[in-house]
Design a protein that fits this description.
alpha/beta; TIM Barrel; 5 helices; 2 domains; 155 residues; 8% strand
Length: 155
């Protein structure tokens, strides 16, 4: 991000990591778009996605997207995005933005509902602590264990 686009580097990374998703490439320069064209099924988007309109505006229909709920503003906008992706066979994976407290429980709850079996960087509480516990940590996929007092996952 915020570095000059290097089409050669894009091509080397795409070839070196054949199972990796290629997130947020700069497809503006024609040489970058050309070298990544064979890898379109692995291109995914994160930073520019804040609404269904952002998905529709992408240069081509994605196979998968990074879902960051905090970027959508309202729950209604987030659910419209999830519905759109489901209707268009666009897989989702979870991306956190260092949510803490209730926000972490909310993003975990949403991931457990909309994409429990995909890679997520929203680890259950404990996996992200400075002092790493040796036992009792939840593992993925998380069950959608809703808290009785609000929209979040029960800790």
């Amino acid at each position: 991000m915020d570095v000059p686009t290097d089409a050669d580097l894009y091509q080397r990374v795409a070839k070196a990591f054949p199972d990796a998703w290629l997130e947020d490439p700069d497809l503006g320069p024609p040489d970058a778009a050309a070298v990544l064209a064979p890898y379109r099924d692995r291109i995914t988007w994160d930073a520019p996605i804040h609404s269904v309109a952002d998905v529709v505006a992408l240069p081509f229909a994605p196979r998968t997207l990074n879902s960051k709920p905090s970027r959508f503003g309202s729950l209604q906008a987030l659910l419209a995005f999830a519905d759109y992706c489901a209707q268009n066979q666009i897989a989702l994976y979870g991306g956190g933005q260092s949510e803490l407290g209730v926000g972490r429980g909310q993003i975990q709850c949403l991931a457990s509902l909309f994409h429990p079996d995909t890679p997520n960087d929203i680890a259950p509480s404990g996996w992200d602590w400075m002092e790493f516990p040796e036992t009792g940590l939840a593992t993925s996929p998380l069950d959608p264990a809703f808290d009785d007092t609000g929209f979040r996952r029960r800790a």
